[in-house]
Amino acid sequence: DGGITQSPKYLFRKEGQNVTLSCEQNLNHDAMYWYRQDPGQGLRLIYYSQIVNDFQKGDIAEGYSVSREKKESFPLTVTSAQKNPTAFYLCASSIQGRTGELFFGEGSRLTVL
Amino acid sequence: AQSVTQLGSHVSVSEGALVLLRCNYSSSVPPYLFWYVQYPNQGLQLLLKYTTGATLVKGINGFEAEFKKSETSFHLTKPSAHMSDAAEYFCAVSPSNFGNEKLTFGTGTRLTIIP
Fold this sequence. Notes:
The structure holds two protein chains of two kinds. By secondary structure, chain A is mainly beta. Chain A has strands spanning about 5, 10-15, 20-25, 30-35, 45-50, 55, 65, 75-80, 85-95, 105, 110. Helices cover about 0% and strands about 50% of the residues of chain A. In chain A, a hairpin with a 5-residue loop joins β4 (about 30-35) and β5 (about 45-50). In chain B, a hairpin with a 5-residue loop joins β4 (about 30-40) and β5. By secondary structure, chain B is mainly beta. Chains A and B meet through β5 and β9 of A and β4, β5 and β9 of B.
């Protein structure tokens, strides 16, 4: 079955540590996205990539970094510069040109201790 | 710029009753509108979408929504609630002349079904 796989599902981190969240898709989608979800705030876009080796900042990119070396993979690094990293992180992909039709992974819940 | 307002962060309905989740939007250009559903600790799944054409759109699981330009609304309805409908629902808007980088989500409405 095609889909998006995020790992790990749950992650605990100490303050000052970087952590990388994995996102892999086998849908052959060109575009991939990272969102952050906090209670009562909906989803906010962190980074997106429309093509391999290219990515753009979203609305809340500070303290995060990404790479897109392969079409299938779009890992997100939460750096120590992110002041409030505890959140639910969602990766999504879409067919280029199909606005709003996002396919989401099951998410990664990061807790900073 | 565009924005989405979902009225009511929590809605409870009895099993078999009408489900009505409210969404109002603002957009400076013709909008594309969407409803997504999220089950606990999972990602979001697209329920239905409006882009152009017929203003009443039908989605999965018996849900439908009507685009009302004069009211800037896109409310989600289902005639008869089922226990499996318990989830969080998100309305989203995108300007029609942009891609997903401009997709804006509402803050969500948690739907509880009373047996």
